[in-house]
Amino acid sequence: MHIIADARTTSEQFSRLVLAVGCFDGVHLGHREIISALVEEAEKMKGVPAVMTLEPHPRQFFAPDTAPDILTPNPVKCRLLAELGVQVLYFLPFDAHTASLTPGQFVEEILLKRCHIKGIIAGHDFAFGKAAAGNFDFLQEAGKKHGFLARQVPPLIVQRQRISSTLIREKILQGQLDSLPSFLGRHYSICGVVQSGRGIGRTLGFPTVNLDPCDCVIPAHGVYAARVRLDKREFLSAVNIGIAPTIQHDKPMIEAHLLDFSEDIVGAEIEVIFCKRMRGEERFDSHEALIDAIARDVAVVREYFAAL
User: Fold this and answer.
1) Exposure class string for 270-288: b at 16+ Cβ within 10 A, else e
2) What does the DSSP 8-state code read for residue 33?
């Protein structure tokens, strides 16, 4: 997949480009419906399927203190979009200039002058331009005027719920990780570099790898059955999320005890793939009680994966 860092300044051109625009945070099943329509229309035109994503999320620009945490950091988003058949990915820096563009300016200066689109695919709630004044009706009229296709994709309803990034965030925050494949299309995961810890897990007999979640959505505190991906290897894992009240961390951390694993991987990049929440976070009266609880957690996690 070819990546363009700034859609506002690019001079690169692609034959019969069909574009979808949005944040695509999560690249969930609703997004996949849009990408499927995008690839379909591009194939009809013998053109190029492309996505334009906003960076940062507009809510991070307008209200950084209340903006939602992200579901998919850019490297993960790029990988998922490429797997779905997207051939070109534009990043559109969202700043004061971008926010000030009227719908007409966005169409003429970005979609036509820079991207030279022949088609655009929009979700059911797509809005763009200053004050989100542009909508699908505006795109249709612009398409008639400038000669490009505009197609709208209806929302995807699963279990009587409309799939959205907001819905998926809520489920993650509530610890409903085992239900996510029905909405996200996969298990939720967090990627990052393994941090040096205080070595407390090792002294308890259960060494952990520690991950700072950064700006990603953090699942509800507790213990999870998870898989940890390291390079091309994958390990079963019992993962604790929280402040470890018995030991008392300063901030929430992700601590993964990889089953049957003893390597030092500080500095390595891993992906923690959450499968199921096994219990909530608890405080124990002693280190001995904590050790017993961790041993039970590890046993329960082994049983969970053995039953799959």
Assistant:
1) bbbbbbbbbeebeeeeeee
2) H
DSSP for residue 71? S
88-93, strands of its sheet edge to edge: 2-4, 88-93, 48-55, 17-21, 117-123, 149-153
The token duo for 263 is 């390597």
Q: From CA 118, how far away is CA 150, in angstroms rounded?
A: 9
Q: Which fold has domain 187-306?
A: Elongation Factor Tu (Ef-tu); domain 3 (2.40.30)
Is residue 60's pLDDT more than 90?
no
193 touches 269 (CB < 8 A): yes
Residue pointed to by tokens 């329509």: 37
11 contacts: CB under 8 Å, gap ≥ 6:
none
Distance CA(175)–CA(177), nearest Å, equals 5
Cis peptide before 56 (omega within 30 of 0): yes
Tell me what pLDDT residue 245 has.
53
Range of lowest pLDDT (11-20, 34-43, 194-203): 194-203
Instruction: Give me the torsion for CA of 252, 248, 226, 162, rounded to 10°.
Output: -40
Q: Tens digit of pLDDT for each residue in 179-189?
A: 999 999 999 99
pLDDT tens column, 144-170: 999 999 999 999 999 999 999 999 999
Report which of 141, 136, 61, 67 is spatially closest to residue 99, judged by C-alpha positions: 61
Task: Break the chain into its structural domains and give their ranges.
Answer: 2-158, 187-306
CATH number given to 2-158: 3.40.50.620
